[in-house]
Amino acid sequence: MGQNLNETVGALLLGSLFTAVGYGITTMQTYMYMTRFPKDPKIMRYTVWSLLILDTTHITLSWHMVYYYLILNYDNPPALERSVWSFDITVVVTAVITVVAHCFYARRVFILGGRQWFLTIIILCLSAMRLIFGTIVTVRLFQIRELALVPHKIGVEVGVGMGAGTLADFIITVSLVWFLRGHRSGFNSQTDNLLDRIIFWTINNGLLTSIVGLVVILTCIIMPYNMIYLAVHLLLSKLYANALLATLNFRKSHRGRGLDDEDTTIQLSGMSRGRRTESGLQFSGKDSTTAPVVHVVTTTTTDMQFEGMSKVGSHSDIDFDREESIHPLGGLKEDA
Q1: How does pLDDT run across 77-112, given as a tens digit for each residue?
Q2: Neighbouring residues of 30: CB distance < 8 A, sequence distance ≥ 6
Q3: How far apart are the C-alpha atoms of 65 and 86, rounded to whole Å?
Q4: What distance in Å separates the CA atoms of residue 325 and residue 105, rounded to the nearest whole number?
Q5: Integer angstrom CA distances of residue 77 from 72, 74, 85, 195, 229
């Protein structure tokens, strides 16, 4: 019985404790974001607030689970074999948090990928599958009730939903790394080092959520008679929320590193089929005591032949720092 408790309520208790720590970090990061970036666009601020609300809902449901199994059903082992309504709802709440994060990253892929829709649509479709199957699993859990029957009754739904989310994480990570490596000039070690740090950050975020998603699938299939997979699943929403918030707050910690000048611009340029794109990382500061601010300035010049006349136009400057700065996972403002 002791071993059974370790694998059931013991695993649930540990999962809830780590989840509470994750929620504390979410709250702290939300406060940091709201105080550091008050001028970010409303869509980004609404995204952060929605994550906090969803995460608060999730942690409340988690606490109810612990109270139900450890207090209300103390010394009632048969209760451990049945799911409680709060657990059922955490499944769809986690799916919604995952979708919010995926949509956020899909926009980064869309912008860094030159506004090509192919990868973005794939990511959004996989994210939609994650939400649809997460909702189906929640409904079926209310019907089945018996946790031991989950792999047999809805194992396919769990696998497809979690698999779609994991695949989306993988595609997002590979795409962002590929596009970021394409911006490495090879001539400026400072810029390349910054991009390398961002690439390292991106890989860590993507691998972490992907690995945890796979662990949920494997533990649910291999160990359906305990609550280990439930405990691991509780952590997933915190990883998505904190990864997204960390990428937004990441901008602040990388401003002005290693720079003595108040205004420095590092230019990267490329030429392809008559279209020239110049991207610069512009570091500027208000005074010598203030950490410089990172700007990404993009200048696009397009050569067009129209009815025998040569047009050189289409000049646009995009200042990404007003929203997100260089970090690819932050919100990049698009000026028409």
Answers
A1: 888 888 899 999 999 999 999 999 999 999 988 988
A2: 48, 49, 51, 52, 245
A3: 6
A4: 15
A5: 12, 8, 18, 53, 18
